[in-house]
Task: structure prediction
Amino acid sequence: MAVEDPAADELEVVLLQHRRRYTSREVADLAGVPVYRARRFWRALGFANVDDDAVEFTDADVDALVLLLRLVADEVFDEQHALLLARSLGQATARLAESQAELSLELLDQAGVVGEDRARFLSLGVPDILPDLERLLTYTWRRQLAASVGRVLQTDQEARAAQLAVGFADLVGFTRLSRRLEELDLARLVDRFEGRSVDMVTAGRGRVIKTLGDSVMFVADLAQDAAEIALQLVEVHAGERTVPPVRVGVALGPVLARMGDVFGSTVNLASRLTSLAAPDQVLVDAQMGTDLATRHRFELSPVGPLVVRGFDEVTAFTLDRKS
Result:
């Protein structure tokens, strides 16, 4: 959609570093591919189709399409995996960009900048910080890539479906609470919950898979690490009066890791156990219980058998620290 406000138009040029000058067909012609194939990559990157005669694309769009096609032509990736690469980039950067845009607006609100002045202020300030943000993005990506490649290679040698401990931490009564809170207060609550939860997971040698506002999903290679993370999550949020109680469910077993996410019955069981846990309680499955039984710092109390949707009757354990 064309931008009519001059200040917003200038901000777009600052961010894209190019002006829009091509239609979909012109981009495809410049890249040497049919329009349908160009659109397939465009959609994979997370962008909607545009009208055939809309001048929406820049030289950077052409360069990106040519680069993706070259990866296929040079047999670095086949078409399917090049599309998966584009999709993972689009999904990750969309969330990143959305959060950075929201942070920018919050800073403008604090500075008293409102209305049409926002685009003008951003146009003046963005050129100074954009190179630094790009450097931070590249640094973080390389660091995460190095860690992920190491994990994937190790998993590949042992088994294609890795055994992991999968956990979910949920805020109790969040839906009811969200109806009472103002939007800004709700956003602050979610920020505190997610921020503290991510800190606890990463400090405990786990990995955050996703955050969903009132829920955090994490994995750990070792059952004892996941158990420690689960207890820490309950304890740290119990000490925060502005955040509702947390309940946690953890299951240990084979999972399929794909595109930064994990799937399988172990994941489903962990989610079901979370919904059955009481406030400030950690529930773990039988396999976690067996692994943790020899760890002297944990106390396990059998619960069940529990009726768990999608499973047979399940024996679970409440997890506490040994006094």
